[in-house]
Amino acid sequence: MSYPFSQYQASANYITSKLDGFTPDVVMVLGSGLGFMGDLVENPIVIPYGDIPHFKVSTAPGHKGQLVCGTLGGKKVAVMQGRMHHYEGYSFEDVSYAVRVLRLVGCSTLVVTNAAGCTNMDWEVGDIMLITDHIKFFLESPLRGENLPQFGTRFPDMSHVYTPALQEVARQSAKELGLTLRQGVYCYFPGPQFETPAEVRAARILGADACGMSTAPEATAAAHAGMNILGFTLLSNMAAGILDQPLSGEEVNATAEASKGKFSKLILSCLEKM
Fold this sequence. Notes:
- By secondary structure, the chain is α/β, with parallel strands linked by helices.
- Helices cover 32% and strands 24% of the residues.
- The protein has six helices and nine strands; from the N terminus they run αββββαββαβαβαβα.
- The protein has helices spanning 5-19, 92-105, 164-177, 197-206, 216-224, 249-273, and strands at 26-29, 42-48, 66-72, 75-81, 109-118, 128-135, 181-188, 210-212, 228-238.
- A five-stranded mixed barrel has the order 5-8-7-6-9, surrounded by four helices.
- Helix 1 (5-19) crosses helix 2 (92-105), helix 2 (92-105) crosses helix 5 and helix 3 (164-177) crosses helix 6.
- The longest helix is centred in the last third of the chain and has 25 residues, at 249-273.
- The N and C termini lie far apart (36 Å).
């Protein structure tokens, strides 16, 4: 199913009607452990996903499922406290729906984060990775179906999904904060099961440094719509087969909780420099 442009516009119009003249510039899709940043927004306007026409509701644990608009790091932001995932039963168009709507609301930049398994043997749990590119071979594209020219061309270029100038901003911020910032490729897997050791080995051979269950669909839709994109991965665990131990959601959440201080400082610094 492809959504007609009128549906995206209806969602955008509802959000705009609640913002009382405020227009966000940056949409932030925050992964595990960073949803609290929505609570740091100044002069917040909170809109539950369930109130927005045609919007989907996040079912992932720990995701509040609301849009928080206001000021953060000196920038006008729309913070998504909760994202949609393909593994929840949503199509890739569903997963990227909110990004397209917020593009219509006025956002020209996407900041996206996730927690994911580390496939790079030289890195450590708790490191933060700047996403320089992604791999997504699985299933269909969020752009599948009728192209909506109001967003972008039928065959969009994906040479630089993650904006080089914003990557440089991230490097400068990490240096000023004294943080080690890894740089690498994110490999998308649909989930909800963790990857098998064989899948992790394959991803490493293909050049992936991290494996996760989000981000690539939203980034693809944002790139199609001409948005600037900055992406980060919290390496929340070593991917399957690297250590002789099972993986769990609890481990991911624990690492996210322990790392949220440095992660949030990095993102705020980037916002201030944009």
